[in-house]
Amino acid sequence: MEIEMKIRGLMMDPVTNMPIVVLKDVAGDTVLPIWVGIFEANAIALEIEKTATPRPMTHDLLRDTIRGLNAQVDKIVVQELKDDTFYAVIWMRQDGEVVTIDARPSDALALALRADAPIYVHREVLKNARLSTADAQNVTAEQMRQWLEGLNDDEMGRYKM
């Protein structure tokens, strides 16, 4: 089962100094942190802030290519967590045919923002991510959930949604 999520914001991990995209369940309080690279976080931040660039960025080019081929992005799904790595799939449609493409979650999220496509996460991924995060940081899943849910806009940085 897929759970619809929205990007709650971007923040920096105080331990690793790596960007985190925080996804939040649209119908509840479930949150999912996904650590991403600096460049990927920048691509997401540019779209969140609706910052125009003088030339198309990679995700803009991908969106424009999809449109140019008379296709559309229906949704992106974070569908697996394996060995502490998230896996996503971009679901597209062209001439009535469904096409799925494997993608890094950060790229899929950046494209979803640009294509105004919904973001989903498999329920099993949410369950496994809570367990993995709790084990890795020696905190309980409930403590991690409460910390992420309790973040205020200042803690989320300027990239709040």
UniProtKB/TrEMBL annotation:
<protein>
    <submittedName>
        <fullName>Bifunctional nuclease family protein</fullName>
    </submittedName>
</protein>
<dbReference type="Pfam" id="PF02577">
    <property type="entry name" value="BFN_dom"/>
</dbReference>
<dbReference type="GO" id="GO:0004518">
    <property type="term" value="F:nuclease activity"/>
</dbReference>
<feature type="domain" description="BFN">
    <location>
        <begin position="2"/>
        <end position="133"/>
    </location>
</feature>
<dbReference type="InterPro" id="IPR003729">
    <property type="entry name" value="Bi_nuclease_dom"/>
</dbReference>
<dbReference type="InterPro" id="IPR036104">
    <property type="entry name" value="BFN_sf"/>
</dbReference>
